[in-house]
Amino acid sequence: MSEPVHPTALRSVTFHGLEPGPRLIVLGAVHGNETCGTRAAERLQDELESGARCLLRGTLTLVPRTNPLAYELGQRMGERNLNRNLRVTSAPQDFEDRIANVLCPLLAAHDVLLDLHSFHTGGQPFIMLGPRNNDGELEDFGQAREEEALAACLGPQRMVEGWLDTYARGVARRMRNPNASQRAQMLSTDPSYGIGTTEYMRSQGGYGVTLECGQHDDPQAPVVAYNAIINTLAHLDMLPAPAPATPGQDAPEVLRLVEVIDRDHPDDRFAREWKSFDRLEAGDLIGVRADGTEVRAPEPGFIVFPNPNALPGNEWFYRAAFSDRAVV
């Protein structure tokens, strides 16, 4: 059987309002089996082209299939995870490197990013927030308030912070895994591997959030994604629609990632079918390693992004706790 032909282009569609305004970019299918953003972006594209909706000002760029190889294959990755180690490189080693060389300048040409994802196991939609304002070395940032306002308009009322610093701590203690490919070993032990679309966007002076719209096959996930795009455009005054209603008296629930645990061996297994934000009590059995070692929760909290099919040397699950961050 012949090898599949790799896509040779990244397709984006841009609408320019006739009045100046923000430059918004919306991504779908950064992971190829997460298609809610693809369907939502293509739905809006049809509406704008038919005149059912009108862009008033600014620039809107839709990228429905950000990783076209992974999309064609119907799987998370083409040759590697596009949403890690996202940067321009002069010597691309794989398909995702070549996509990044096009995607990164495209991101840098915009002010705001909405990246639409879904997740493997069941659970409710949630938003990944960037860091608080800081001038640190890992991810210095000065637009936390703008990003929080964007997150608050999207719809879901659960938010999670602490991605990159948690990932960096995981890198600091991660050993080379003999069960992972050489390239996976190299990337997963590189702190830059934690840099994805939103982290790159912030590094270029913009801001953005990742919206996890639900489980991959949930029929409501494309609806969540579409509503989030419309709410974002209204929030930025780019559509002739009222701004989305502000949340009621209940403030968004904000959690903070505190630890990432890798899958070390193909026979590592979960003790039960976990879904994101299942509660953990101290001592709860989370999983069992191939050698019989038990993985237990060291303290109360939540499990996030459990992936029973994670490749060795990659993230198996995250733990989260309540955050003291207030988003209003």
- N-C termini distance: 56 Å
Largest sheet: 11 strands, mixed
What is the arithmetic mean of pLDDT? 90
Provide a count of the helices.
Answer: 8
Per CATH, what is the topology of the largest domain? Aminopeptidase
Percent of sequence in beta strands = 15-25%
Helix and strand element order: EEHEHHEEHEHHHEHEEEEEEE
By secondary-structure content and strand pairing, the structural class works out as: alpha/beta
Q: CATH homologous superfamily of the largest domain - what is it? A: Zn peptidases
Question: What is the CATH architecture descriptor of the largest domain?
Answer: 3-Layer(aba) Sandwich
Describe the structure.
The structure is a single chain. The chain is of the alpha/beta class and 328 residues long. The chain has two domains: 13-235, Zn peptidases (Aminopeptidase), CATH 3.40.630; 258-322, OB fold (Dihydrolipoamide Acetyltransferase, E2P). The protein contains eight helices and 14 strands. It has helices spanning 36-50, 68-73, 95-108, 144-153, 163-173, 182-188, 197-203, 221-235; strands at 13-16, 19-27, 57-63, 112-119, 126-128, 158-161, 207-215, 253-263, 269-270, 278-280, 285-288, 294-296, 301-304, 314-322. The strands form two sheets. Strands 1-3-2-4-7-5-6-8-14-13-10 form an eleven-stranded mixed sheet, sandwiched between helices. The protein has a three-stranded antiparallel sheet with strand order 9-11-12, with no helix packed on it. Helix 1 (36-50) links the parallel strand 2 (19-27) and strand 3 (57-63). Helix 1 (36-50) crosses helix 8 (221-235). The longest helix has 15 residues, at 36-50. The protein is globular and about 60 Å long.
